[in-house]
Prior knowledge:
Helix content: 25-40%
Number of helices: 11
Strand content: 15-25%
Strand order of the largest sheet: 8-9-5-10-4-11-12-15
Largest sheet: 8 strands, mixed
CATH superfamily of the largest domain: P-loop containing nucleotide triphosphate hydrolases
Distance between the termini: 71 Å
CATH architecture of the largest domain: 3-Layer(aba) Sandwich
Structural class: alpha/beta
CATH topology of the largest domain: Rossmann fold
Amino acid sequence: MAVITEQSVYVALGFIMDPFLQRDYVSLKAIETLSVVDNRVQLSLKLGYPAASMLGKITLHVKTQLQAAGFEDPEVRVVTDVVASPSQTAEGHLSGIKNIISVASGKGGVGKSTTAVNLALALHAEGASVGILDADIYGPSQRTMLGVADDVKPELVDEKYLKPVIRMGIKSMSVGYLSEEKAPMIWRGPMATRMLSQLMEQTIWGDLDYLVIDMPPGTGDIQISLAQKISVSGAVIVSTPQQVALIDARKGIEMFNKVGIPVLGIVENMATHICSNCGHEESIFGAHGAEAMAKEYQVALLGSLPLDSRIREDVDQGLPTVASDPTGPLTAAYTSLAHNVAAQLWQLNQTTPVSPEIVMLEE
């Protein structure tokens, strides 16, 4: 039997790819410990994203690949530990947040809020501590989507700070918790921006792996102010495949690029519809548009989500799909999205040494 060395194991690990990043574990700096005891490999990998449902598969894959490389019966352990973004330099109630993810869209009606809440729930289901901020000041929807009763209000602390409302394991805050459901938010831009800053900074978030921000649609005052005041770790752009939506999604990407916030990738929502009667699958809003745009901007296509009435019904009933059907195929799509978003952020956090420079947009 050939003598095994740590160097030979490192060489083999250089050919074993992470399933979500398609990069090897050596370049990802995922090797926590590696030793050879009595000619047997003992390996511990640490992944920087939550993956509770995938740990067994990843462990088996790594072990199988090492065996195929000639290492008999390797001992493989895989753990996860969410990596904090180097750009997170906030103080106060934001200091315990490792990563802030902005979920945005260039236009309304593309399913951004539904995607944001299911993404947050999927990250939590995979083992992360998660919060969600409803930043859509003019049209808050997270109270309804999370099924928070109308009489539930955030608890006031020291007459200044707010405790987030906890629902389905995630912490949430929304202007919808502080106003009447039917009362319109008749505010000018500066007022709305001030309100968002207060919700963000005066909420006692505690320690979070991820804070998901459900942004208002468009590229206006609120989006720009958020980028300038808060260290957003990365942005997720939601779009449908149709050209009108993609045109506006491009504007969203360009805005984040100009203010120095990395775009983690694009989510193609309502990509295909499967007829509930005959099973025929059809791309109602077009096909491959988001994929082409992702290639154009050299960002990841994070997920392709179906047009399914159950997704709409679930959020209308206050129990989003990830919570209402945790083992179903629709939840699997959101879980895959969560893995891809978190993995892209882990990769970004390894290559971002300092906070991004904020560039002021011209009027």
